[in-house]
Please model this.
Amino acid sequence: MEATEAVRTGVDYDVVVAGGGPSGLIAATAAARLGVRTLLVERDGFLGGTATAAMVAQFFGFFHERTQVVRGIPAELLERVQALGGSAGFVEYVMAEASDRPVPTRCFPFDPEILKLAADELVSQAGCELLLHAVVTDVVWENGRLVGVVAHTVEGPLAVRARVLVDATGDAVVAHRAGLPTVGAELGSARQPLTLVFRLRGVDVPRYRSLPREEKRRIVREGIAQGKLFWESFAFNSPRGTDDAVCLLTRIRGCDALDAFSLTRAELVGRQQIRKVMEFIRSVPGFERCELVSIAPRIGVRETRRVVGVYELGESDVLSGAIPDDTVVLGAGPVDVHDPNGTGFVEMRMPPGPFGIPLRCLLPRDRVGLVAAGRAISASRVANGAARHMGTAMAIGQAAGTLAALAARAGVFPHDVRAEEVRATLRGSGAVVGVEDL
Ligand SMILES: Cc1cc2nc3c(=O)[nH]c(=O)nc-3n(C[C@H](O)[C@H](O)[C@H](O)COP(=O)(O)OP(=O)(O)OC[C@H]3O[C@@H](n4cnc5c(N)ncnc54)[C@H](O)[C@@H]3O)c2cc1C
Model:
């Protein structure tokens, strides 16, 4: 699209980040802190993406077993959430405990409403400008280079120009609109299932947690047999250690989140599943007196498109703990790939150690002035299963925002920024870029 076709052209920025989820809000903060003029464009009226809109209220990816592998701006966001009373901090947690593949790890449960406040504060204090209720629908080209995006806003289409763009939409919307190669869309409804999260109050969380694992497994099998539970992982967390429970108990299979009508159906099926869960859950010890208080505004989408990058992070990179020279993020895992057809997982295991995410995975194959962030980076399906956790997505965001800012400042393509410069800048702002930083 030509920028002039938009109803109004906006001001120019050095960096425009599309998508204000975990990776995008950190990318925008990182870029703005480096002193470049930054705009964050988000389709919802608040930041946080899956962490707020889909109410997935527990951060994984910060720890590999007992080792913290993500620090920097993501860790600062967590401190702000805690300071605002939105979390009691990291807890020991067994992922998929009621399934046949439990993985002990550490997670950071939080209140999604408080995360919205902390994210506003973080981004604004960095000097980043925000454009909310703005859906990126197109890109602007000039001489073979991406120079902006067009967002659908309350005024109609609005074009904003940038020296460098960051695609943090989760769905690789910018790359897709630009016609760059992506993978994942071709799988349609065979991608990982969707989950509509809901929140209960009146739950005796310690009572449920104290049940023996075998009893939890029995409950889940019983619920599935009755058609009132939908996957083997009885996953929930209590944001502030109180009597509320944010529950990931639905599992919507056979829907394609990139198909408008299929996505609509997924929301409806998700709500039907919540009704079924509510018929069953009061028979579970600890949940006898629970009440449904809210349903996430958006269904949670685990997997859609990923860019085809200069390098594709592979399963063997993750499982061998490879840490290449241009590593900008340490991933923790676990490798977490849900079965698109059944009630369990295709993959659920902890890699033997932290693994490196190279800068090359953030660079689309084509040199057009775009950087990828979050779950849309270049990775195989299995590797993405390990890299998509929000702690990792946020660390990727910091790397993406840093790269974009350095490129914009130097007036070069992101591909032309040296990895060593990105790593040094990240390190200077407290991020972990290698095992030597642990
Ligand atoms: C059901 C479910 C459970 C999960 N469980 C966990 C868990 O327990 N712990 C964990 O750490 N991770 C979990 N994950 C994974 C994690 O939430 C995601 O991988 C992570 O949020 C990816 O971050 P992101 O910033 O790349 O994308 P997203 O969180 O998807 O954010 C993308 C952002 O871009 C915006 N956007 C999209 N399109 C446009 C557009 N066209 N214009 C403007 N804005 C746009 C969206 O509104 C959103 O704010 C889960 C995911 C799901 C779906």
In short: The first strand starts at residue 8 and ends at 18.
